[in-house]
Amino acid sequence: MNIIESLREDLQKKFPNNSFVFTHAYGNNVIEAPKDRVYAILEHLKRTGRFDFLMQVAGADFPEREQRFEVAYELFSSKTFHRLRLKARVGEGESIPTVTPLWKGADWFERETWDMLGIHFEGHPNLRRLLTHHQFVGHPLRKDYRADHQQHCTQALPIHFDVDPYFVDDGRDVVPLNLGPSHPATHGTLRVMAQLDGEKVHRANVEIGYLHRCFEKMAETHSYNQVIPYTDRLNYCSAPINNVGYCKAVEKLLGVEIPPRAQAMRIILSELARIIDHIVCIGANAVDLGALTGFFHLFTYRERVYTLFERLCGARLTVALTRVGGMA
User: Fold this and answer.
1) What domain range is 201 assigned to?
2) Taking the CA of residue 14 as centre, how many other CA atoms within 13 Å lie in the half-sphere pointing to its CB?
């Protein structure tokens, strides 16, 4: 019995006379269910051990539908390595229950989905902007939001902290500290806010939206191959892997199998990129601990890989080398 038939049988016993739709499309196991049954299904799948990881919660906009939004929960089993996508439709002005009581990791996933699409998650403890700034109006991943409509932030928020039910403010004398959004210690545009009690961090908060580009919105206005240079920048430490992952997704939708030579090139490029990504991670973290010599030693090998990339396509960091259907 394949996984989707096993799930059908299992959920039929748990939810008799249900209206769930089970499909296997493009290599994905998919269940579509009413939004008011989503929490119970996820709770059952987690409690029975069928799926123990919530990989992401994402949304999509279909303005032509009566219920225009679709919420998708991507599940993974660390025991069987099976994956499952649970989907539900949500109308404008409607809400869907939060799954943060089941998975704490759903917190930011749901906040991002609300921020980008305006889908409300009922019962979420802190449903507010995550990737757009506090002056932003609207939801940029809705199809009726213009891709060229920019909204600039003119004033930063003062130091602030998320709602934490476990935090007790005992009135102690603390020192506020702000790092970023542009600070040499953050390795990028990231804002960290903290309260210090002597040398101890009393509590901290982070703003991550300063680096958000709304890549998905840019992809809406370009052809498939024109999107590839954007994927380099999703993680420039291993740019070829991002190229390959994106192209494989498009090829799966189109039913395209690339030539063996292109497959081999992709594997070699991705393995080299994976290695130098680890080099960046280990080398940079070692510098933060004071180990500067190891950084220089490791980056010597990173430069050798970049020399190979340069010989292949002329670029080093962001290569944009793959194409839908093969290689450049």
Assistant:
1) 156-165+172-212
2) 16
